[in-house]
Design goal:
Chain lengths: 399, 259
């Protein structure tokens, strides 16, 4: 499977437009699958962005980072501080979050990329855990420790104060007058997701992206071909860190608070799962993986015994009881079990992820179509022959 | 002889030693590779031929001695990519290609290295705009008879073809010095002859080459000069005719083989 292709401009534009339409109409099709509420849709978009960015590092270069949650956290804290000190407007918040995440990614990447393989993964994990623990302990003046950092009414907000903007009630993220909660929040995230997707698409279609994949394919050859892999890897690391910063910033935009738990290693692991589940190194895979995981988290964790009883109502009582007993551990608090099972099925049967699964289905169906078409053609030919023979016989009879 | 004295020395190896543990892999190697020449290094297995090439591309640092390429000392801290940027390309003994990428892209990537240097940040440039490099890669692939398969994965090629692909990857860089480590090993006779023809064509263009080869047919069709390596030391050097009749060479390497 080739991930890097020189596609035509029209095709790329059509792909982006299609993606934009799918994202913007999410509130409509989300209703059909029970996901039509802004909270969940925001999560789709935010974690989709996180995964797209992560895929630029992991999918293209093959370097598996276990510390990207640190940049998520940095993005969130920066956004809340921008809210506290400058303004409730989203633009400076997003800008500073991405910038700061990029700076931290440059530093962590510079040190971690001195090693490759498992050692690189362990180094990134160590840095992220360090960030997490710092946020809980010595950095409490900046992060507000366990309580989490929140926006208060009497924060300075110098830009807002200078412009005479005052918020009533508890301050909320805002985009030139639009309060970024509910569907407004989702549409802002959606806009960022579409932009993020377009940037990722450009990278996938560039010589730069091609070289990243070449590093994954054969780093030795790259070095003896005259490329210095280190700056390429560092660029990919910083870009993916900036995406994570953006995702973290959006989290704090739609819900203005930031806590250290966002930086925990489980959050770093989650984005790895999303990318692999959807399809490593593919354009759409990571977004799909993020959506699937967030969907499962919300849908299955909301199930409980009563809901299960209602689902199995149509069965005889004794069978329904058994089914409820069997499925109960997989829902509610146990939804991780469902995720684990799904993950295993995907890794064992379609290691290329959900996208690979789609591709296989498409190939089967086209082959099936082709076979059917051939069969029809053969049948038609036979019929024509039979008709010709009959006609010849009739004519012979007439004579 | 006067003609040879006028030739510029491209690569000069002087007094190079290398030991691995207790094994003396290279002993006091002195070698001058002149511009435009095809210099073959032959010798039995384990004689140190590949080690010698590895010292030239920065893969192995010699214990002592100097390797000078166009006046620059390669031993003094040149990284492999910097050495390539100076103009040295190498075909490896086991083909080093990009298996997951298409054959066309395998050839385009080294061309980017030649044009853009060891690092260029251009994530927003479209591959569509790289028509010039794509055309160059295509014409090279046509020479190699691989143009029709350009969209196939390089990893799906047979071993002999992987080697030819690697040769194409090196040639697109227009190196000043091309190092070939058994370029025809694992190839069918037909492909070997084709590769010899290709290498002869390159020679006409004046590219300097160092070639390690076991196939004497290849060596004597291409080489202008031959050095014989045995147990890490050069035991003979000369024109092909001199080497053919050299008693020491027969003893060490050729045995009773009739040439």
């Amino acid at each position: 499977m080739q991930t890097i292709i020189a596609s035509t401009r029209t095709k790329d534009m059509a792909l982006t437009a299609l993606f934009a339409v799918i994202v913007v109409t999410a509130p409509i099709w989300g209703k059909l699958i029970g996901a039509g509420y802004p909270d969940l849709l925001q999560k789709f978009a935010i974690f989709g962005l996180f995964a797209i960015g992560y895929n630029i590092l992991f999918g293209l270069t093959g370097y598996l980072s276990f510390g990207h949650a640190a940049f998520l956290g940095i993005g969130s804290y920066t956004t809340v501080w921008s809210f506290k000190l400058l303004t409730m407007n989203a633009i400076p918040a997003v800008f500073f979050s991405v910038l700061l995440a990029g700076i931290f990614a440059a530093a962590i990447g510079f040190l971690s990329l001195r090693r490759s393989g498992i050692y690189f993964s362990i180094l990134t994990l160590a840095f992220a855990q360090m960030a997490y623990n710092l946020a809980y302990s010595v950095l409490t003046p900046i992060t507000n420790g366990e309580t989490g950092l929140r926006v208060l009414r009497d924060d300075p907000r110098v830009i807002d104060a200078a412009l005479g903007i005052q918020s009533e009630g508890s301050p909320l993220g805002d985009f030139f007058g639009l309060t970024l909660t509910g569907y407004n929040g989702f549409y802002f995230c959606a806009l960022m997701l579409i932009l993020g997707f377009y940037v990722s698409l450009k990278i996938f279609r560039s010589p730069f992206g091609m070289k990243l994949v070449a590093i994954k394919a054969n780093q030795t050859r790259m070095e003896y071909t005259g490329f210095n892999p280190r700056p390429y890897l560092l660029s990919a690391f910083v870009i993916s860190g900036m995406y994570a910063g953006l995702a973290g910033s959006l989290m704090a935009l739609v819900d203005p608070l930031a806590g250290a738990e966002r930086m925990q290693w489980t959050a770093s692991g989650e984005v790895v799962l999303m990318t692999i589940l959807g399809g490593v190194g593919t354009l759409f895979g990571p977004i799909l993986g993020a959506a699937i995981i967030k969907y499962f988290e919300n849908i299955f964790s909301a199930f409980n015994e009563q809901v299960l009883h209602r689902i199995f109502e149509f069965l005889p009582d004794w069978l329904a009881d058994i089914m409820v007993l069997l499925t109960n551990p997989f829902v509610g608090e146990g939804w991780h079990l469902t995720l684990g099972a799904l993950f295993m099925v995907v890794i064992i049967f379609v290691p290329g992820g959900v996208i690979e699964g789609f591709r296989r289905l498409a190939r089967w169906s086209t082959r099936f179509d082709a076979e059917a078409a051939e069969r029809r053609k053969a049948e038609a030919e036979e019929k024509a022959k039979a008709r010709a023979a009959r006609q010849a016989a009739d004519e012979g009879g007439a004579k | 002889m006067t003609d040879q004295q006028q030739r510029k020395v491209v690569l000069s190896i002087s007094g190079v030693n290398k030991t691995f543990g207790g094994l003396q892999a290279l002993t006091d190697i002195n070698l001058k590779i002149e511009e435009g020449m095809t210099h073959a290094i032959i010798g039995p297995n384990g004689a140190g031929k590949s080690t010698l090439l590895n010292t030239c591309i920065g893969r192995i640092t010699p214990d002592s001695g100097h390797i000078q390429f166009e006046g620059k000392d390669l031993v003094a801290g040149f990284t492999p990519h910097a050495i390539n940027q100076l103009g040295i390309s190498r075909v490896f003994q086991t083909p080093e290609i990009f298996p997951e990428l298409s054959i066309l892209y395998n050839v385009m990537i080294p061309a980017f290295a030649r044009r853009d240097g060891s690092f260029k940040f251009n994530p927003f440039r479209s591959l569509r705009k790289e028509k010039e490099i794509e055309d160059e890669a295509m014409s090279l692939l046509e020479d190699f008879g691989m143009a029709d398969e350009r969209h196939h994965h390089a990893g799906s090629l047979a071993r002999g073809n992987k080697r030819r692909l690697e040769l194409a990857m090196c040639l697109i860089q227009h190196p000043k010095l091309l190092l070939l480590d058994e370029p025809t090993a694992g190839m069918a006779r037909h492909d070997t002859n084709r590769t010899i023809e290709l290498l002869k064509k390159i020679k006409l263009r004046g590219m300097t080459k160092v070639i390690i080869e076991h196939d004497m047919h290849v060596v004597f069709s291409l080489a202008d000069r031959i050095s014989v390596l045995a147990q890490g030391a050069i035991i003979a050097e000369g024109a092909p005719n001199e080497i053919k009749g050299h008693p020491k060479v027969r003893e060490a390497y050729l045995g009773s083989a009739v040439l």
